[in-house]
């Protein structure tokens, strides 16, 4: 039932993304634009121009949803999210520093610096959150992530403010969105996304055992350290690769796994794939809402990253106030 609903929601969001925008087209025009490459009508051209944007929204949303589910399972922290744990901002800081001090300009350079920044930020947040009695508790990790994310954001601002030319390059990327989708960029990040997604799905069973506690998992034959390492690599690479191509998009990885667990329970063998589908649905829908909101106010459009923040902030407050925060 959940799989059927997820697939139906995905199909509806794809149709909306292809049909709605600065110029709305009918579903029959969407079909014509997809199936008849020789059709030169304005509506058909509009549909074809929206295809890469829709594909990037699906890829980025799926990666962020899966990354969030992996991080929440790995840390047993329902507040874990690439944005809240500082992973997004770590990637952003390294990209900004690369633009300002190394003069990077290609997506490949963005990608490797974003992955490096994301990995170092994740390791640092975990190290800080693990200090003291009780180890890396959910609240300590969330606080460490929020504090380090704020510090990294300040460093980004310190680098940008005296460099107007860097700010011009960076400001559109910083917001986070899919409006600048290009096939060449997606081709470069696709191998990273596919390999890290496969790695994440491969550790779904061991993550179920880890939820019972490290000693129980070890007793069941799970290699605890290796499982944590593989899950962390998969989550960080998914987030870092998406950040390189679409900017830091927050809250998708927080909201979607929560909704999925409410629907199907805590079994990671279902939570991980359905979080990927749910993330794709949420980010594609956020992109459509941003286009319509921008058109309603008379110009431009809101990037999907802004829409997810508007939706995600109250969700984060609701989750933080929940008595079930410690139960994951």
TrEMBL record:
Protein name (database record): Iron ABC transporter
Main location class: membrane
Topology in membrane: Multi-pass membrane protein
Coiled-coil ranges per UniProt: none
UniProt superkingdom: Bacteria
Subcellular location: Cell membrane
Family: Belongs to the binding-protein-dependent transport system permease family. FecCD subfamily.
Ranges annotated as spanning the membrane: 51-71, 83-104, 110-129, 141-161, 192-213, 225-250, 270-290, 302-320
A Pfam family hit: FecCD
InterPro entries: ABC_BtuC-like, ABC_transptr_permease_BtuC
Record PANTHER family: FE(3+) DICITRATE TRANSPORT SYSTEM PERMEASE PROTEIN FECC-RELATED, FERRIC ENTEROBACTIN TRANSPORT SYSTEM PERMEASE PROTEIN
Keywords: Cell membrane, Membrane, Transmembrane, Transmembrane helix, Transport
